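We emphasize that the prediction below concerns an isolated chain of 535 residues; any contacts that depend on oligomerization or on bound cofactors are therefore not represented. The input was used exactly as deposited, without trimming of termini.
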Amino acid sequence: MYLAFGTEIVYDGAEFYIGDNDKTGIVGVNGAGKTTLFKVILGRQELDKGKVFTDGKRIGYLPQEIDFADKQKTVWDYLMSARPIGEIESELNEIYDKLAVADEQTQNDLLKQVAWLQARLDEYDAYNAENTLLELIFDMQIPDELLDMKLGDLSGGQKSKIAFAHVLFSDPQILLLDEPTNHLDATTKDYVTSYLKSYKGNVFIISHDPEFLNAVVNKILFVNKTTHKISVYDGNYTAFKRKYAQEQLLKELRIAQQEKEIKKLSDFVLKAKQASRTNHNLKRMGQDREVKLAKAIAALEKRDKEYKHVKIKLEPKTQGSKIPLEVKDLSFGYPDKPDLYDKLSFMLNGGERFLIVGENGVGKSTLLKLITGGLHPKRGEISFAGKTEYAYYAQELELLDASKSILENTDADGYTDVQRRNILGNFLFNGDTVFKKVGLLSPGEKARVSLCKLLLKRANLLILDEPTNHLDPDTQAIIGENFRDYTGTILLVSHNPDFVEQIGITRMLILPEGKIVDYSKELLSYYYILNTDFV
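Result of the prediction step, given as a token string:
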């Protein structure tokens, strides 16, 4: 395979083979071409050279960002549409009508179509499909009341779960999953892990979750951003890391030997060139070594590039108030739905880390949207102290303008373009990359843009909704350290226990009760394991 976007090479002579029923994790640094590979397999991205063969198998795809085309469709109708049984049956009925008036030759042709369509119905197990879907709904712990909801009314976590159920029910022979565990709670993650391990078909997973990869995959497909090649390793993610480290060690020894030989040849060639014109033997030997030197330089292996990590330093511009935020007697509910809260009250203390927890659908993200003005309460007050300046990180990254560039999205008072470009470099956006439209970015890149906006505001109150989604483990650890050392106040919704532990939560608000308790790791684990979903 060969693919390039302008001067940026993605694949160059890349090849791989994956056998039937293999479960394959796809890994590589940001920008190596992992999600692009999915687009190639799906036929949404043409290669400049080469081809990917899937033998005509049905493909199911779960993208990182879930966006339903028909937001008015109910969850049940959407799930049932994963298998095109209704369309096939309608086509069959039309053919039966035609059979009644067709001549003998036409009847034979129509009967062949009937046989083919009937075979498709059998593939989708049409007569048991509804029961199969109900079993899947039960196993994934999708509440009955969710089935009548419109897709447009679902929360971020609910969208992920429903989209996952849809792709599983579609009964594909090849599954492409891009960061599938981003919004999943422990119960659903355990079910999905078990399901994928016994799945009769190919599974390809892009994931920043080593634990999940280790539990599911038996092969790792490594996309090398330095060489633009693709390598396949047997075993899980941990086995890959060990083998890759050994390969790099041997490669470094080879390169060191090659460089030693190049140095030796270079020194001889230089000595020969500086020799007297009458020293014909040395001159002749120098010319011979120069040819060998050129070949040695051409054959010199490339070291895999050391890629930079995100650098972030969060510092409030001004000191906040003792009580930066107060919520009094808050009531809110969506139209035609029961109220999520009734007379909810709480306040934040300056400098504390305050976590919101609760079961599926209780409105954790909704509460943050009310506080930041994205929604308006029915009753009650939300008041910020005079010194409070807040910055909001939205779970679905909807605060970014997809039509504008990275540089335009990070416009902020008090910074020149040069200063912002330097700061964007710390978030791995260098050179002309800053002029790239946000709509063309991967979810991980969008998350880094959102983090940059957060830093530039230098607020003394951070309101964070699932800030670790879409980020690799190294970046999660880096921002966790910064949030831990941050001197302002943090209001947080997160389903990532390791991250929550890292930043040092002081109190927890439990929804829908509105009860406030001191931070408890055991209580956090209870909600992480018990919940069927997270908003």
